[in-house]
Write a structure and sequence with these properties.
The protein is α/β, with parallel strands linked by helices and about 290 residues long. It contains 8 helices and 7 strands; from the N terminus they run E-H-E-H-E-H-E-H-E-H-E-H-H-E-H. A 7-stranded parallel β-sheet has the order 3-2-1-4-5-6-7, sandwiched between helices.
Length: about 290
């Protein structure tokens, strides 16, 4: 089997680092992209890979990091868009002088716009590559969240960013297999990463409410190689090790046949705008 290569954003710590370590154990060489230079270097040294300092909110930074990986490896088989942040105080307080203040949208800039840029780089590169031994040009796995599926009061802007991630994967992920490319999403519940505080994680763990990090790593491993799945979201919860394993959220289905037909027409209209050159119908996809 030919050597395989991966590119990981957010690989300096948390889930990204855990994925990099697991990939290394499978003989897959990884390139770590993270704004935390010291952490990225440490992960790269641990796995025998390479790294670059990358700010995922900046296109130029993402391109520079990705190009370095492509130049080093020659090709990229897997891209893991994992870089992300948690909720912030995004909504300005009412100004006493009656003026208006711009909201802080940095969460969406990192979690969604940054992810979009990483995925765009991946797909552009995959389209240039021949299929590998598994029959794919490449695979993308992105980090979502259960907050991108369920209502999350108190985490509004974070939830919005993750709902956007889920929507992209469930839509574009159904189109990409025609190009020998897959796109899937991890939607874990709360895991011990750098997004929140150790005290919060300890409290959840004491109640049996903390999701094991290795559950998300296992889901990544299942999507490697010849697995043809695309457009799917894999939920990992606190009972992962208690027999629950990985599950799929119960997303809404079409209300009736006419509703499905509306989406058929929207799919065809969308394809025509993109110059896809062929019709796309929801009947072609498994919802």
């Amino acid at each position: 089997m030919a050597q395989e290569y991966a590119y990981i954003t957010g690989g300096a710590s948390g889930l990204g680092k855990a994925v990099a370590i697991q990939l290394a154990s499978k003989g897959i060489k990884s390139f770590i992209a993270d704004r935390n230079t010291a952490g990225a270097e440490a992960t790269a040294q641990e796995i025998g890979g390479d790294y670059a300092t990358v700010d995922v909110t900046l296109w130029e930074s993402q391109v520079a990091g990705f190009k370095k990986a492509v130049e080093l490896f020659g090709r990229v088989d897997y891209v893991f868009a994992i870089a992300g942040v948690g909720q912030n105080d995004w909504m300005p307080r009412t100004q006493a002088n009656g003026d208006f203040e711009k909201p802080d949208l940095s969460v969406t800039e990192i979690n969604f716009h940054g992810m979009l840029m990483t995925v765009s780089l991946a797909v552009q590169q995959f389209r240039r590559q021949v299929v590998n031994a598994h029959g794919f040009r490449g695979k993308v796995i992105v980090a979502g969240s259960v907050c991108g599926v369920y209502p999350s009061p108190g985490l509004s802007i974070y939830a919005a960013s993750k709902h956007a991630v889920t929507g992209l994967v469930r839509s574009w992920g159904l189109e990409l297999p025609a190009e020998e490319i897959t796109l899937n999403c991890l939607i874990p519940s709360v895991m011990r990463t750098n997004i929140s505080s150790p005290d919060f994680y300890d409290a959840l763990e004491s109640e049996g409410l903390l999701t094991p990090l290795h559950g998300a790593v296992d889901a990544c491993e299942q999507l490697l190689g010849s697995n043809p799945v695309s457009g799917e979201c894999f939920e990992i919860g606190p009972d992962y090790d208690n027999g629950q394993g990985t599950t799929h959220p119960n997303f809404a289905t079409f209300t009736d046949e006419k509703h499905r037909l509306v989406f058929d027409r929207l799919a065809v209209r969308g394809a025509s705008k993109l110059g896809a050159g062929k019709s796309i119908a929801t009947a072609d996809f498994k919802f």
